[in-house]
Amino acid sequence: MSKLRPDLQIIADNINPNARVLDIGCGDGALMAALRDQKKVDARGLEIEPANVASAVSKGLSVVQGDADTDLSAYPDGSFDYAILSQTLQTTHRPDVIIDELLRIGKQAFVSFPNFAHWRVRMSLLIGGRMPVTRLLPQTWYNTPNIHHVTIDDFRALVRDGKLEQEGEWFLSGDKQTGRAMANLLAEHAVFLLRRQIVPGLSQRDEDQKWRMTMNF
Amino acid sequence: MSEIINEDTRFGLDKKVRLLGPLPLDSGGELTPVEIAYETYGTLSADASNAILICHALTMDQYVASQHPLTGKGGWWTDMVGPGKPVDTERHFIICANVIGSCLGSSGPATINPATEQPWGMDFPVLTIADMVRAQALLLDHLGIECLHAVIGGSMGGMQAISWTALYPERVKSAVIIASAARHSAQNIAFHEVGRQAIMADPRWRGGAYYADDDPPSSGLAVARMAAHITYLSEAGLTEKFGRRLQDRDSKTFGFDADFQVESYLRHQGISFVDRFDANSYLYITRAMDYFDLAEAHGGTLAHAFKGSKTRFCLISFDTDWLYPTSESRTIVHALNAAGAAASFVELSSAFGHDSFLLKNPEMNRIVDGFLKAGEST
Q1: Average pLDDT over residues A24-28
Q2: Are B370 and A74 an interchain contact pair (Cβ–Cβ within 8 Å)?
């Protein structure tokens, strides 16, 4: 078994055995295969690149070619224990809507992203005066798929404003886990585990969801 | 109850069985007996767990990996089916049956109506895709196969494959549906109607009663084939293959001969088709496809067709296929996701339109191979 990317390893370590998992932007299915083989997880994937889908399907994984921005609405509410969005949030058109969808489909959601406030990124912009090109953000401004750069503090604000519960957070620097202290400056990469705040009564959002469910199919 | 009618001395080839049925039909009647001509490849395992059913498209036949008796050509899907291929004659027991309504040995308008001892002609009952599938289920009963390792089909074969998963979910472990749809679109129906009208406008069609003097409506059938053939290709494919190039001449003739290569090609497609296909079968099978709408039978909600399904699904579409475009496959995938079924889907790139599924495509083979093998390891 080849080694998982560090952020994926953190996610894999924190998923309960036999869970139902939807991996959005699953790439060639490395995490899904590890979860299936090590934790008997029922994993499903969504991936935009045909070659990646082909690789995942040829590993025997259930992966659908599609776009997180348009194809999540088909999945019913609460149909997965976990929805996973690794290194994909910053490529979506509306990250806030996507996170909303993750927590509609999954009871919990793992989100991992490169931290745009890491000191190397800051230095690159401050000293060089050019859009940063780093190990985790290797493309230049004109060909990068990362259209919504985000920092750890930005993400925390989104979690707070979206009235979401944060159940776990992990930070990485140079593929090693680092502490919470000054994570927004020192972490290259963050992994969050979220769940929706449980509020008594039926919210407007639930009403919206009901309407959406009746409209689907 | 059944009887073996004839059997080629070569193992598994040119088999034909008469099943007493009766086969209840969606139109309300029933068909009895049901004759089914089929080919098998490979050996059925002791526990009958390695059976794969291949469902053929509109004008294809059971000769998926063996020589066609009329054209002498090799099988129509030998890149996918054969020793060491994704559908592996060494590993799997492979069945491909001529659909009922067709003309390569299974019950159809050209076969004998037991009531009149004459060819059925237009008295043959109008069929549906589900009827074809139920007939295949009768054949599997006869062969002692309770559960299929996989059902695989492209185009109309894909309609049968997906119908299998809805009609007999417990009999299908996995399904591969290529370049297909869960319903026939208005455009699909429109093209089929052009073909049918071409056949029926041929004076030799005579209400379908043309078998006695062996003078079939070949002109009408050829035109139907020409029109349909355009829908199987892509504009880019036609341009690449023919462009505006002239056929065996240096300049235009200012007449109505086949000046252009593309005209000559289509005429050839039409003329060679009539040697291997029956015009009435073309009417019946296109009708069955037009009537196909899997959601309709499930209260208009496609996801209901897959409720509680344990079947693994693999769907493949092609980016230049405008007859069964990717959006049709995606509709099925969304319904499978809504039903919580295990689904895989990929759109592959190919220049050759709908016909892509019949052509060599290493990526398609890699996907089908991995998908089938994954089902064998569990």
Answers
A1: 95
A2: no
* Cβ neighbours of B337 in A, within 8 Å: 44, 64, 74-75
| Class for the domain spanning B188-286 | mainly alpha
Share of chain B above pLDDT 70, in %: 97
Q: What does the pLDDT look like over B56-80, one tens digit per residue?
A: 999 999 999 999 999 999 999 999 9
In the block, residue with structure tokens 């990929």:
B346
Q: In this complex, which of A60, A63, A66 lies closest to B373 when CB atoms are compared?
A: A60
Query: Touching check for B73 and chain A: CB below 8 Å?
Result: no
Work out whether strand A189-196 and strand A106-114 pair parallel, antiparallel, or are unpaired: antiparallel
Q: Tell me the residue ranges of DSSP E strands in chain B.
A: 2-6, 15-19, 23-24, 30-31, 34-41, 51-55, 81-82, 87-88, 93-97, 112-113, 118-119, 150-154, 174-178, 312-318, 342-348
pLDDT above 90: residue B47? yes
* Euclidean distance between CA atoms B149 and B156, whole angstroms: 20
| pTM check: above 0.95 | no
Exposure of A63 in the CB half-sphere (CA atoms within 13 A):
35
Q: How far apart are the CA of A101 and the nearest CA of chain B, in angstroms?
A: 14
Q: Which of residues 313-342 of B touch A (CB under 8 A)?
A: 314, 330, 333-335, 337-338, 340, 342
Q: A48 contacts in B (CB within 8 Å)?
A: none
Q: Within 10 A of B362 (CB to CB), how many other CB atoms are there?
A: 9
Q: How confident is the model over A66-123, as pLDDT tens digits?
A: 999 899 998 999 999 999 999 999 999 999 999 999 999 999 999 999 999 999 999 9
CATH topology for B2-183+293-377 is Rossmann fold (3.40.50)
At the second CATH level, the architecture of A6-116+145-215 is: 3-Layer(aba) Sandwich (3.40)
At residue A54, the pLDDT reads: 92
Report chain B residues whose CB lies below 8 A from the CB of A50.
346-349, 363
**How far is B29 from B162, CA to CA, in rounded Å?**
24
Asked whether the predicted pLDDT for residue B339 surpasses 70, the reply is yes
Mark yes or no for CB contact A64/B335 under 8 Å: no
Catalytic annotation, residues of B: 155, 321, 354
Shortest distance between the Cα of A109 and any Cα of chain B, in A, equals: 18
Three-state secondary structure call for residue A115: coil
Q: Where are the domains of chain A?
A: 6-116+145-215
Give how far A26 is from chain B: nearest CA, Å. Answer: 13
| Phi, psi of B288, rounded to the nearest 5 degrees | -60, -40
